């Protein structure tokens, strides 16, 4: 069996035209001749060094992917690069073979499929992106830049987002500012705006090195925390100690000091049902309350919490609609407990949930 899963492009590459921005475009964005040369040399030296240093990790992760289901180790998919030139981008495969054709231009979520624990670990820690160091070495990508985009996704977003083609004035990056600081549910216009801000700024190797080192520290932290949790749950708790009686498909978050309110009018902050948010995942949340819900809904809930940033305390809210799924036995002195199956009221509220309650952004 092949070690690389090949995916057929869903668009005619001959129809992918170049934008009006050349790679040596002067002025406010794009590469200058000197910056193009220095960035290319920087990419080659650093990517080669990281590949050599990380070779044992590549072998371990590759063997783990291969042993999981016997399928290809790497995923190879078409992406649009500098001046919209198509290239093949590599990743460690985390999805079952053929999943890309079923998903198409959509973003992977829990609605498509449930990932095995190891695959979810690779995606959450971004370790599945490591093979893109070879793309950087080949000159397809930079270390920092807008993330590479699939042709079918480009066809959708270019029609709706102003100046979307500006991203093709530079090579796509292994590290994207938008992906580093925002979750997947961030509105695409906002992510495109962040990417365009990167394209417009002057490139600095010192700043690039700082961002690379910062990203490595963030990934190392996630690997330590989530890897330790994975080993505990899958090896010790579930298989050796047999502590888990159920298999949870989605990981729960426990945001501190979070409250839930039922609102008749989302724009009115009046008294009403209030509860304490105990945990939440992408589908359901559990809350305890001294108040009783009248029926099973649907209800409009406002989930809220304080975020402490230095001396400033910021108030974050997200609106969701939901119905009561179950009423488990309450704990901790609460009179009532509820498990609510919910949907974000708007895409903006989905972003707020991921960013401030589910902890989906890297930083």
Automatic annotation (TrEMBL):
Recorded family membership: Belongs to the bacterial sugar transferase family.
Lineage: Bacteria, Pseudomonadati, Thermodesulfobacteriota, Desulfovibrionia, Desulfovibrionales
Pfam families: Bac_transf
Keyword Transmembrane in annotation: yes
Organism: Desulfobaculum xiamenense
Alphabetical keyword list: Membrane, Transferase, Transmembrane, Transmembrane helix
Keyword Lipoprotein: no
Highest rank taxon of the organism: Bacteria
GO MF annotation terms: phosphotransferase activity, for other substituted phosphate groups
Protein name listed in UniProt: Lipopolysaccharide/colanic/teichoic acid biosynthesis glycosyltransferase
Domain Bacterial sugar transferase per the UniProt entry, residue ranges: 41-220
PANTHER family: COLANIC BIOSYNTHESIS UDP-GLUCOSE LIPID CARRIER TRANSFERASE (PTHR30576), UNDECAPRENYL-PHOSPHATE N-ACETYLGALACTOSAMINYL 1-PHOSPHATE TRANSFERASE-RELATED (PTHR30576:SF0)
Segments passing through the bilayer: 34-61, 206-224
């Amino acid at each position: 069996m092949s070690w690389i899963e090949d995916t057929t492009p869903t668009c005619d590459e001959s129809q992918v035209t170049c934008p009006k921005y050349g790679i040596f475009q002067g002025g406010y964005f794009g590469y200058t001749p000197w910056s193009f040369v220095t960035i290319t040399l920087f990419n080659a030296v650093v990517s080669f060094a990281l590949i050599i240093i990380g070779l044992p990790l590549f072998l371990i992760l590759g063997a783990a992917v291969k042993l999981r289901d016997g399928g290809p180790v790497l995923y190879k998919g078409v992406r649009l690069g500098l001046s919209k030139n198509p290239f093949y981008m590599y990743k460690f495969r985390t999805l079952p073979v053929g999943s890309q054709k079923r998903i198409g231009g959509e973003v992977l979520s829990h609605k498509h499929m449930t990932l095995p624990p190891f695959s979810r670990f690779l995606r959450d820690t971004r370790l599945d992106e490591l093979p893109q160091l070879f793309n950087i070495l080949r000159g397809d990508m930079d270390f920092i830049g807008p993330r590479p985009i699939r042709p079918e996704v480009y066809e959708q977003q270019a029609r709706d987002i102003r100046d979307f083609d500006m991203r093709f004035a530079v090579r796509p990056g292994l590290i994207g500012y938008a992906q580093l600081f925002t979750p997947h549910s961030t509105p695409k216009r906002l992510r495109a705006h962040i990417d365009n801000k990167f394209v417009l700024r002057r490139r600095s190797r010192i700043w690039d090195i700082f961002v690379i080192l910062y990203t490595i520290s963030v990934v190392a932290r996630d690997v330590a925390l989530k890897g330790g949790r994975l080993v505990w749950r899958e090896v010790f708790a579930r298989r050796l100690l047999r502590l888990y009686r159920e298999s949870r498909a989605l990981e729960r978050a426990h945001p501190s000091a979070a409250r839930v309110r039922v609102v008749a009018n989302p724009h009115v902050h009046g008294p009403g049902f209030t509860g304490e948010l105990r945990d939440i995942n992408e589908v359901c949340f559990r809350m305890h309350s001294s108040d009783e819900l009248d029926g099973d809904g649907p209800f409009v809930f406002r989930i809220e919490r304080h975020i402490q940033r230095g001396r400033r305390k910021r108030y974050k809210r997200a609106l969701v609609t939901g119905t009561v799924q179950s009423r488990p036995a309450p704990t901790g002195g609460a009179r009532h407990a509820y498990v609510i199956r919910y949907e974000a009221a708007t895409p903006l509220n989905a972003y707020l949930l991921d960013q401030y309650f589910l902890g989906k952004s890297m930083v």
